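Continuing from the previous page of notes. For each protein in this section, the sequence appears first, followed by its structure tokens. Read the first protein now.
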Amino acid sequence: MGSMITSDGDRLQSVERAMSVLLAFDAQRPSATMAELAEATKLARPTVRRILLTLHGLGYVENSGSHWRLTPRVLSIGQHYSASNSIIEVAQPHLQRLAERTGESASLAALDGTDAVYIGRVSIRRIMTINVSIGTRVPAHATSMGRVLLAWAAPELIAQVIDETGLPAHTRWTVTDASIFRGALRTVKDQGWSLVSEELEAGLISVAAPVRDQNGTVIAALASSTSTGRSSGEKLVADTVPLLVATAEKISDDLGHHVPAASRSLRANAHEGFF
């Protein structure tokens, strides 16, 4: 995801407040009163009221008595994203083939702030306790997809992730030391893929590889996920990584990025120091 440095004077506070109200609706709060939304967003009730009435007029929220909820129209925002990003349409058949060949779920993610966001997925088995669907956000530092996206990111963005998140532990295996984390990213960039085992959730293990646009910029990460009960790091490196890297290269090809055949997939054989 691209970023732009802006000053506070360039930002519309009304838009920020409206977005905070929209984002206050989630799985734990599918409907809410005006008071609950004011508490969740830290906005004054009159402000929340005006935002809700505006969103209601646009068709994005509805109310029943004192409770408000999102309407299906909010899904159109995601549809507009999909329609304007060819990578999703290009990648979908590759995701399907990867899932069929590995027998495991295949995903595509992009970086948004300090999170990796699922923008494509073919699910074979349910292996995570969180409900993974398009738009699901996961911490970049503790996932193979996130580490691929950060490995080729600007140093300033890596520093932002470290400073803003503090690299919190999600399991006892999560890398939380900044120096070790930076070393892990260097390893990912050197070998061309990432493996993360049980750092986001116990029993979850995944590998990811970069997807590039026509300019060679890493714009997404392709991942294959499984459980430690069905596989191991060594098995994934030997069996899945070569297929994963080759698939990521095919998606990149379809997006206009071409590399010499002699250099293809050579890094997939680098088994040392994987993360």
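Done with the first. The second protein uses the same format. Note its length before scrolling.
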Amino acid sequence: MEPNKPVNPYQSPSVDVISASSDADAELINGGRSVPAGNGLSWIGTGWGIFTQSPIAWIVCAVIMIVISIVLGFIPILGSLISYVLFSVFVGGLMMGCQEQRNGRPLEIGDLFAGFKEKAGPLIIVGVLFIAASLVLLLVAAVLFMIFLGSAGILGALVSGNAESLSSLMSGGAVLSVLVIGLVILALYVPIAMAFWFAPCLVAVQNVAPLAAMRMSFFACLKNFLPFLVYGIVFFVIMIIAVLPFGLGIFVALPLLYASTYAAYRDIFLAE
């Protein structure tokens, strides 16, 4: 706060803040703050503004990320694990690029790799933790599915090769049970997504430790359920539109996703 700036005695109590390492005009709110539901839409608008400042660089970065993802997809199991780690670092680099855009420099293609130069270690840890959490969830899903197969008698029918019995079991409530298990798994994945949504940005831009960044990200998403609901619905529509023109719109939708994430980070975590 500026020393000569008048203070409004009727303003609401401020939240706890900690020093921000890369914003001279802002302080980092520990744990984030709640914002109005309509801000979910404004994040996309702000993200679009960030994208249109350097559209070519953003699109090239998106192409590079997609190509790397496709190439790694040809490597069984290990390719997916490497992809998760790399993309954590890539996202951190793009968040740093957004910060540079805010400071007046256009986004550069090299910003995609900036995370490897400055924050590789912490960002890799974020990626590894995401893999670990996903593997635990996958294990839980496998256990639930095996329990279901055993209790429904489907596993026995599969082992015995009794096609008639298997068909009879599947025609009952088995399909509905599988859908319920799927919803349970999805519900378990949501907290993981919440913990990692802002983590690369907090690590790369604010030098927050990986575990602390995950904690802050989780609680920030939790207290902003309505804005994220609005954001998710609107972005779902955007993704549908993006895949219609032969999927070419994804090269705009992907940069918009990351740019709007940076916009949400500033809205929720920074007291300016």
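What the second structure shows: Residues 1-22 have pLDDT under 50 and may be disordered. The two ends are 9 Å apart (CA to CA). We return to this in next week's lecture.
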